[in-house]
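Workshop exercise sheet. Pairs work together: one partner reads the sequence aloud, the other fills in the structure field after running the prediction. Swap roles for the next sheet.
Pair: D.N. / O.F.
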Amino acid sequence: MNYFEYIEALKGKKIGVIGYGVSNRPLVRVLLDAGCDVTVCDKRTAEAMGEAGEELLARGGKLRSGEDYLEHLDFDVIFRTPGVLPTVPQLREAAERGAVLTSEMEAFCALCPCRIVAITGSDGKTTTSTVTAKLLEAAGYKVHLGGNIGTPLFDRLPDICPEDFAVLELSSFQLHSMNCSPDRAIITNISPNHLDVHSDFEDYVTAKQNIYRNQTEKGVLVLNAKDAHTPAFAAEAKGEVRLFSSKGPVENGAYMQYEILCRADHGASEAYMESSDIRIPGVHNVENYLAALAAVGDLITREQFVEVAKTFPGVPHRMEYLRTINGVKFYNDSIASSPTRTIAGLHALPVPPIVILGGHDKHIPFDTLGDELCLHAKAAVLCGETAERIAAAIKASKHYDPERFPVIVLDNFRSAVQVAYGLGGNGDIVTLSPACSSFDRFKNFEERGNIFREIVMGMEP
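Structure field:
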């Protein structure tokens, strides 16, 4: 079934769309323009949605809002937003009554006419996805980059050609009920995350595994050689397995040895470049490049890889340098919404930074983070829901020295930035690297990072 046949098949059906966020708005627009019967179910009223709500109603869409927006889902087809898992009782009951439960991304993958490279993992998804797309573009391919990275692709299906590539960043929420079969799949790493939404860690890991479980023998699966889950994932893979490693050679994939990035093709290796020549800093970004190289190295030249690595400045909110004030450098790493990502940032910086942390509580343990902060940071300034939990983890660490390592808890984000700056001196670094998601105070990590940038750029020297 192609895109046009799919839209035609939806006519005459009652369609429910759960959540009217970024991913679902183009979908709703397409369905309404095709004359479909669409009801959006969202906590927010049309007034609270602003222009998006006005557009929905103007195009003939219906809206069911309020706290009980998930009740009475009497639809033939339901498109869920990624943050509402199919295990939610109301969705499960609707499916048991015969409703087809899907999502914008599931529909895209089923209808996409071109090759798909799909990327998931606990950390590094966006940078790896963006680098993969840029490498393919450098090789002359037309690339459609989207998914969890913030760009919906469903409405672009009519413009996608079989010779193109779709590069998709996929979250555990998107993958939870997906039966996708990407031509190439990358799992960057697995560590505890989103345990406030998933029933447990096993549910989170199982969702990630959906990225490869429906691949065919022709599929390629790229895995992190040092991740504990890799042997089990590799054993399940139906197609070719490629590994990436920042700690020495692999037989097939990409690796770093003696600070040199290399590509391995079934035992034959070729050196590509020195890691120090990659424009964006940190071993975690070296690993992002290695993952991308393992996935698409056979489709690009060494020269194309080197050119992208030397010139790509990185994605905003990911170890993004902002400015220097009186010798203090500021970095925006708002994307660091898990302890492992914050720890990677600590190791990427040239000096122990003053770290601004805290945010929404995803029920992830902070014990290891506490140790790493004591060993590799200069101070911690904490605010948000998790501030006290992180402070407790730091003070419980065997490496904690209250005389050497300040731990400051504040209620106000702006005050946290100003206090962090006050703790620094010439040659120091202040980084926003929260180790938590942003939903306690901000719409998303982008808004958090943008506000941080605004505060820093507005500070007087």
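Discussion prompt: The first helix runs from residue 3 to 10. What would you look at next?
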